[in-house]
Design goal:
Strand order of the largest sheet: 5-4-3-6
InterPro entries: DUF3435 (IPR021842), Znf_C2H2_type (IPR013087)
Radius of gyration: 37 Å
Strand content: 5-15%
Protein name: C2H2-type domain-containing protein
Distance between the termini: 112 Å
Pfam families: DUF3435
Largest sheet: 4 strands, antiparallel
Organism: Paraphaeosphaeria minitans
Shape: globular
Structural class: alpha+beta
Number of helices: 29
Length: about 800
């Protein structure tokens, strides 16, 4: 018996008895095997004695090993097959020698039983489920509810449950379902029914345990066009920088809807970040699929720092890093993306300035900077190349862009709550109408245009990383429909006019700021008198009279009854139908304007009138001086850092101001005067770069008692008002808003109840009248005080 000693790289010695002839033959066949750093010994069974057949079998194994190892011998950097096997066994914690010993000996019963139990468990579990995202699961679960409703209709006749129908996998049943789906829903596009069919196939996979048969999928997909739905595709528009500036101009100059200043600054910053990073809105704000989760860009994802200037080593510049964490499919394979932004020369496009203003508004700095100038004056230590500006620890996980709640007293910043996607989109769409775009604007148009510019400037790998898509997906969904290239020059070889072609390809080419933004009185009357609304109002009145006849006065006492539920459902249908009709009527009015404006322009010019006299714009008017200052600087390059600091300071002040809401019942009369700064100019006008005169509205300061309201003239705010007013609104807003009459007691009482939902009125508070400082506690105490002291009855 020959005993082999332990070789390097082996875990134990192996003893083997092999016949001499067989051993020599084996060595002869295996002589060309290259030496390895860590050889795996060949194990031969000591019994039974070797036979010719076993001998040939052994030699055959050596031949196969030789063929598999030989190609590796030419690669000096790669280890041999024996190395790989030994390393993998060592890394995985599996003892190959123990396994070979187990081949000779029966494994312990306990281990075999454990393995058999695991096999039975996996057999019971069945095929692994697809790893769908939470949003995808929500979609097919919602579709499963429609499927169950459809199957319950059939169950009385067929006796088959929804699950049984899925297991049968009858294409005819699925086709009838899609017909039923079309009948009971407002489905107009074939792409929508395709999506519903895809969700049903996912639901099938979840219930049955395996994917639907390919022949069934193909059969239904080939049949779907027979439904006769619209197969046209929406034009893929892109919003390039010129159109983005039109949106920003609408936000700061043209928009007449009162907004909190914090909303305007945040919307401006969000638009710039969306355009520069080509990111989805859900990476910056709380998406609709994550509603209530507060998942959005946080302070820990934004960092400000001073770095040395590349042009002047003695100076430092401010930059910002933004790390987008909440990317699509983050749980599966999504990776975060980090971007760096520098100070921009144009105020409209300076992302860092907006980030600084928002940070000061939220008092987010760890070092407690009191002015913007202090940050710009910071120097980098000689031994360092960066000076990072830290946030407060308690704000690191808080959203950077926070929501602003609308109250009867104006907007209120909800610092712990993320800015919602629906509000971002709603304001963006409205700004598109204000800017006069003919087509409806969408946030993805920014992403598409940014992706197009990135595609031109960077290689496809960087584009795919930024967009978070493969090349195939980008080319299919993000390539604009209008190919902005001079094909005429390409073919004929004439001088290229690429810039002209690009300007024509802009989606804002046909925009007109004179287009209607909202419905006029006549159009609103048409909506109110629509036959569909009249029918719904009659239905609502029937339910209301039935509730009254049963003694439910007021109607809220009927809560919990089926009659009241029907009444509430009808009220909701009236609201949704009214909103739908308004949208359709406004869309029709906008389209009518754009269809006729060219003919109007041509007709007037042919009649001898110059183009400048046709449909001129009204002069913009601002309530807040800070907004007017930002609007004036929108396209003026910064002269120096002092001008930039003043701009950031103005943005910060604007973040704390609220534009006065205007009553819907009647329009305010504006008492407008010119800006005192402009009065020093020779022409007396305050002209912004767009050529429009900016005028300011004179209104009472919206200050608190501590800021001087107590010194308000008594003749403006008499202790007993000449007519019923809201004694809580009297503490804020313009003078006309403070003293607006509310003659009906029931309306005034409802208005007061809304006020008292505010947390500041839950405890003790002072009377808001400028000439009264009595302490009040609760709504009852307030109403008694209003009647006894101010003569206002609720």
């Amino acid at each position: 018996m020959a005993q082999r000693g332990r070789k390097p790289g082996t875990s134990s010695a192996v003893t083997a008895t092999v016949p001499t002839a067989a051993t020599h033959r084996t060595k002869r066949r295996c002589r060309n095997i290259p030496p390895t750093s860590s050889a795996v010994p060949v194990r031969e069974s000591p019994s039974p004695p070797a036979t010719p057949s076993s001998d040939y079998g052994l030699s055959s194994v050596c031949d196969e090993d030789l063929e598999s190892v030989a190609p590796l011998s030419s690669d000096t950097d790669a280890g041999s097959a024996a190395d790989a096997e030994t390393d993998s066994s060592r890394d995985s914690g599996i003892d190959l020698h123990g396994e070979c010993e187990g081949e000779r000996d029966t494994p312990p019963a306990s281990e075999a039983d454990a393995i058999l139990k695991r096999i039975a468990y996996h057999q019971k579990q069945g095929p692994a489920k697809p790893r769908h995202s939470d949003k995808t699961k929500e979609l097919w679960k919602a579709e499963s509810e429609f499927w169950e409703s459809y199957c319950l209709v059939l169950q009385k006749e067929t006796g088959l449950s929804p699950e049984d129908q899925l297991h049968r996998c009858d294409p005819a049943v699925f086709k009838a379902y899609l017909e039923w789906r079309k009948k009971h829903a407002r489905i107009k596009k074939e792409s929508a029914i395709d999506a519903y069919w895809k969700r049903i196939s996912m639901y099938y996979d979840h219930v049955v345990g395996h994917a639907m048969a390919n022949k069934v999928l193909k059969d239904v997909r080939r049949w779907i066009p027979e439904l006769g739905l619209d197969r046209s595709k929406k034009e893929k528009l892109a919003m390039y920088v010129q159109d983005l500036f039109a949106i920003l101009h609408a936000l700061w100059v043209d928009d007449k809807k009162p907004l909190h200043g914090f909303i305007r600054v945040q919307i401006s910053a969000l638009l710039l970040l969306s355009a520069a990073t080509a990111t989805r809105p859900g990476a910056l704000v709380e998406s609709a699929s994550n509603k209530g989760s507060n998942k959005a860009l946080c302070f820990k994802d934004v960092s400000l720092m001073k770095v040395p200037s590349l042009t002047d080593p003695n100076r430092s510049v401010l930059v910002a890093n933004v790390n987008l964490v909440h990317v699509k499919n983050k749980e599966r394979d999504g990776t975060s993306k980090k971007f760096t932004f520098h100070l921009e020369g144009l105020p409209a496009y300076c992302i860092v300035s907006h980030l600084l203003a928002i940070s000061f508004r939220q008092d987010a700095f760890h070092d407690g900077f009191s002015t913007v100038q202090q940050i710009f004056d910071l120097k980098i230590p000689a031994q360092r190349e960066v000076l990072r500006i830290r946030w407060k620890e308690d704000l690191l996980d808080k959203p950077f862009f926070c929501n602003v709640q609308s109250t009867v007293e104006g907007g209120r910043a909800l610092l712990p709550m993320a800015f919602p996607y629906w509000k971002y989109r709603e304001i963006f769409v409205r700004l598109g109408r204000v800017a006069g775009f003919e087509e409806n604007v969408e946030l993805y148009q920014l992403r598409r245009a940014s992706g197009d510019r990135i595609n031109e400037a960077l290689p496809s790998t960087s584009r795919n990383q930024t967009m978070g898509h493969s090349s195939e997906t980008y080319e299919r969904y993000y390539t604009p429909t209008h190919i902005a290239r001079d094909f005429q020059s390409i073919y004929f070889g004439t001088p290229s006019q690429e810039d002209l072609i690009r300007s024509v390809a802009r989606m804002g080419l046909s925009r007109d700021r004179r287009a209607p933004v909202e419905l006029d009185d006549k159009q609103q009357e048409e909506v109110r008198n629509h036959p569909l609304l009249a029918e719904l109002r009659e239905e609502r009145d029937v339910y209301k009279h039935k509730l009254y006849s049963q003694g439910f006065r007021p109607l809220v006492q009927g809560q919990g009854t089926s009659l009241y539920a029907d009444y509430e459902s009808t009220v909701r249908r009236i609201g949704s139908t009214t909103e739908k009709l308004r949208r359709e009527r406004l869309k029709e009015a906008i389209q009518t304007f754009h269809d006729s404006i060219d003919a109007i322009e041509i007709e007037k010019q042919l009649s001898g009138k110059p183009a400048t006299e046709i449909l001129t714009l009204s002069t913009p008017e601002f309530e807040l001086r800070e907004r007017a200052t930002v609007a004036n600087m929108l396209s003026k390059p910064f002269k120096d850092d002092r001008a930039r600091v003043r701009h950031i300071h103005t943005l910060t002040r604007l973040c704390r101001l609220q534009e006065t809401p205007r009553p819907k019942a009647r329009k305010r009369k504006l008492d407008c005067v010119e800006d005192p700064v402009s009065s020093s100019k020779a022409d007396g006008d305050f002209t912004n770069p767009t050529g429009l005169k900016i005028r300011f509205e004179r209104c009472e300061p919206t200050a608190s008692k501590d800021e001087g309201d107590a010194d308000a003239p008594s003749h403006l705010y008499p202790m007993i008002p000449p007519h019923p007013v809201c004694l809580l609104c009297i503490g804020q807003g313009s003078y006309e808003w403070r003293m607006r009459p509310i003659p009906r007691k029931d309306v005034l009482k409802k208005h007061i109840k809304v006020h008292f939902k505010d947390p500041q009125y839950q405890g003790e508070f002072e009377c808001r009248h400028p000439s009264c400082s009595e302490k009040l506690d609760g709504m009852g105490h307030f109403m008694r005080h209003a009647l006894d002291v101010h003569g206002v009855c609720h």
